Amino acid sequence: MERIINYNICDGVDFSHIKTQKFKNAGIAITFFVPLDKNLVSGFSVLISVLSDSCKKFKNFQSLNEYIEEIYGANLDYDISKIGNYQMLELYISALDDKFTANHEKNTEKIADLLCELVFNPLINDKKFDENIVSKRKNEIIELIDNQIANKRTWSMIRCNQIMFENEKCGIRKYGTKEDVQKINEKNLFEFYTKLIQNSRIKISFLTDCDCQNIVNKFKEYFSKINRNSDFNFKKINITVPKKVKEVKEKMNVEQCKLVMGFRTPFIKPDAHNMSLASAILGGLPTSKLFMNVREKMNLCYYCTSMLDAGTGALYVSSGVEELNCEKAKNEILNQIKLMQNGEITDDELNEAKSFLIQHLKSISDKISTLYEWYLGQYPFSLEESPEEYSKKIAGASKKDIVDCISKISLDTVYVLTGGK
Q: How many whole angstroms separate alpha carbon 54 and alpha carbon 280?
């Protein structure tokens, strides 16, 4: 089992050494947390992509990539996501751990040094980024947005989230909009960089069995030169009960109608484990109630699944249906939830859900990326619960626990995406 050693680098910057002997690779990541803001998400999305492209030491992606190839097993990537009311912007580098290099090369220091070069010494001249790199990376973010829209199952989930949280930060799309991406240029991107490095909440995660005190000191030295002004603390979502169900139908060029139902629940981390089980029983397994009844028995949809967003407490039920079956499918989904609320959960259903989730939790520790992401997802909630510890909560849940939590959900939004006429 991994051991976590925490260090405070400076105001609003934390470093976690996730120490484990399980992997031959080591990985280091820096993640910037910023409050979701529709005026800023697109700029920050372009920025993290640009930071992954070059720096003053490696002035283009080709030279950067050539250096990465010199480090055995090295890989560089970036990611943009959101959790609760926050956008997460991440740079991640992995490589073969020092213990397994042929000549005991210090790969961990090399990837840490490279991450520092990318973050603290970006390719900026006269308070401007490189115009061509910015243009290239803007196109990349626009392509990511286009891919979201093109995948109608994904897009219907995004639209349900937006409508459900229309006046809340967590309803803002993680990449922003194409229109806002187009407004970014090499000059105003520098302003986004200044905001990010000075004002964001920052988590540095290093997963390795090697000692990392030198790397901690390195980050302390870099951040000592920055005028930090990070005074925000993570705040939980304000849980509300909807006064009225929002029903929205939109038209796009789709052959299969998408029905997404969004429910408010009071269960966010660290209290989401029972709701996770309830979601699995409802629509997270091949033997779930929605699959066996709405899809198989009643033949009302092509797929019907549920998922819990533990950062917002939102439970989503997503299905692909013929438009003429939309109302029937919606009613049967609500009926299956009602049956669960009335206690119609068998021991087999509960045990299968537990087995499924516990097996998934075991698999988290099999890869560096998933283990690191597991702990990162807990950071805004001040948690450091291992997958094994969470598994014990799942194993200890009773039928009454599941009935109690499913009884507290409230339908907020019904979103239908149809081709129309």
A: 43
